Every structure is written in C-alpha cells, then in structure tokens.
C-alpha cells in the first residue's frame, strides 16, 4: 500500500466550508435543484483552470519536454473546454437553465477546433446570465477552496515534482465522471419531485462525501518510478520528440 502524505487540514477544511455554501442558497434564497447542479458545473471550470496552472508549472525530467507544454496546454483547453461545453449544454436543456436559444446565435463560427471554445463561452454566458445573484459568493468560495488546495498540496506539498502530464490530463475528467454521475442521478430524481428540501440536502451531502473521497484519493503519494516514461509517452503521442 503506498504511503499517504501528511494530512492537509487547511485545504480539507476549505473544501468542506465551500461545499456547505449551497445550504445558504437553499435555506435563505430558496434555491431549487437546478441552481445546485448549475453551481457544480461551474466548479468544473474552476477545476480546469487550476489544472492548467498545474501543467504550466509541472517539473519535467527533460528541459526539452517543457516545449511540449506549448502544445499540450492548448490541446487540454480545447478538449476539456469542449467536454464541459457539451455537458453544460445538456444541463441547460434538461434542467431548463438559460434562455433556451441555440448556442451559436451570433451568425458566425470560430475556425477548426476553436469552435469548441466558442461553444463553451456561449454556454457560460447563457448559464451565468441565469444564475441567482447571490451565487457569486458560492463560486468565489469554491475558487478559494481549489486555490488553497493548489497552494497547499501542489506547490507547498511539491506535487509539481512528482505528478505527470498523463495524470494531469486525465484527472479532471475522472472527477467529472465520478462526481456528475452521482449528482445528475440525484438531481434528476430531486427535480422530478419538485425539489423537496430534504432531498436537496441529501444531494449536497452526497456531493460533499464524493468530493472528500476524490480529494483524498488525488493527493495520495504513490511511487513515481515511471513518471519520466509517462511524460515522454504522452509527448510522443502528439509528435513531440527530443
């Protein structure tokens, strides 16, 4: 069994605190399940932002591999951005969030794969315009929580020395798949029952439980015998060689 890193109480506490903020929306501002699911989708964008920072400062075994980041990071932005855009577009229509207008309603399309970023920006604009005003504080809380974890674990905990491009490329997707299978299943059920308060509380508690599990799992210290090989493998796949 791989040894675990020392406990990170600050980021752990910040994670719990940020995840308790939706209760304020539920009890004080009468949020229904749509706004809860909306907030958790926005959190995917926050996680993606910090993942880009992680890639940027990741310590590579070979100096030449740093040049590969100039391709990998934009590739991640387009691929992850498109993934979140489609996810958000689905939420808009299923949970009736936003204006319901087509994502590309400005009459022009961006070139090539950049169309995925155009779709993302369009979905963000429509979703953001539909959020309740007080949700900004929940978004700020989640941003701070992820930021604390980034500094405490990745910077001060020196995960930037032991992580790999392969791990960072896959990590956000794993979080979305695990998290949102649970959230969507619960959200759909709660929505069908017209968002009763007890079930919304259970939904938030479910998210906190899954979040804590993923947080602990992602910050385990595992043997990094093949870090160099993993980074070289992913760079070779996109045609970047020494």
Topology:
Layout: H1 9-28, H2 33-57, H3 65-94, H4 114-130, H5 135-156, H6 159-162, H7 165-192, H8 197-218, H9 227-237
Helix pairs in contact: 1-5, 1-8, 2-3, 2-5, 2-7, 3-4, 7-8
Shape: globular
Overall SS class = mainly alpha
Q: What is the string of SSEs from the N terminus onward?
A: HHHHHHHHH
Query: What is the number of E strands?
Result: 0
Mean pLDDT: 82
Notes on the structure:
With 242 residues, this protein is an all-alpha fold. It has helices at 9-28, 33-57, 65-94, 114-130, 135-156, 159-162, 165-192, 197-218, 227-237. The longest helix has 30 residues, at 65-94. The two termini are 35 Å apart.
Essential attributes:
single chain, mainly alpha, 9 helices
Quick rundown:
This protein is about 75% helix and about 0% strand. The protein has about 240 residues and is mostly helical.
